[in-house]
Amino acid sequence: xxxxxxxxxxxxxxxxxxxxxxxxxxxxATFRSxxxxxxxxxxxxxxxxxxxxxxxxxxxxxxxxxLHCLExxxxxxxxxxxxxxxxxxxxxxxxxxxLVHNTCHIREVISLxxxxxxxxxxxxxxxxxxxxxxxxHAFSPYGLSKFLTSELIExxxxxxxxxxxxxxxxxxxxxxxxERFTSWxxxxxxxxxxxxxxxxxxxxxxxxxxxxAKAYAHFVTQDPPAxxxxxxxSGYISxxxxxxxxxxxxMTAYLQIPCEFSVYxxxxxxxxxxxxxTNPVDAEQFDWDEERAWRKLAxxxxxxxxxxxx
Length: 310
Known about the structure:
Elements: E1 2-6, H1 11-22, E2 26-30, H2 40-49, E3 54-56, H3 64-72, E4 77-80, H4 95-102, H5 106-112, E5 117-123, H6 141-160, E6 164-169, E7 171-173, H7 181-190, E8 196-197, E9 203-208, H8 209-221, E10 228-231, E11 233-234, E12 236-239, H9 240-255, E13 262-263, E14 279-280, H10 290-304
Parallel strand pairs: 1-2, 1-4, 2-3, 4-5, 5-6, 6-10, 7-9, 8-13, 11-14
Antiparallel strand pairs: 9-12
């Protein structure tokens, strides 16, 4: 398949584009900025992708260059993974500004896709996504922006009769990720520290990014079962305390260092206590080796931590 892919410089975008390319598909990856603008871990991901895909730099979603690509080249599917994510954890995140960027010229984009299909990625933080115990609201401004983006795109696709697939991302972890929970744990353990888990009682859905990427590639390349189709892939559903125990056990085994942690007696719950996806991913279907994934993750940490990429 010929696939136009946005958002390939992101953590999950890198793995999604990589998996599609390695399965033999021709991936045309658009990047918002020029190559020289990418540095750090994001730059590392971009440089690793260049041999695998056809990069198109300086081509934000909905821009004149982006529309020109759709007009002049034939693609089987558009994977719209790009999103406004700067300061996405902040309460000051501008959901409306993100919506504008995420859906720039969306009507024209969908019109140019006639006869093909569109795949978008959603977030488990959106309103209506995942399973939870409370009312299923967006629990951050970023989650709100993703919900509004999905709603607008679904509306336009329905109006123009374009098949739309939505792939909802839970809590992925793995190599080449920005500093988030698992890499924060690793940094502490390499320093000989004992980190304290601040939100141990949240039940979340963590998943190896390599398994998530295989599920994504299958979702993108399958024949659309309906005009609107979706997948909410699920990995390890547990409390964050239980997930940390599992992560520590695997890293202790493969890194041969102490991986101890403590638990903060959490009493504040500003987010839903439970928010998880609903479609367990079958590792056997994709010939995915769980222990190999843990081992490769430990190797990544061992190789990259000393040079300061983490």
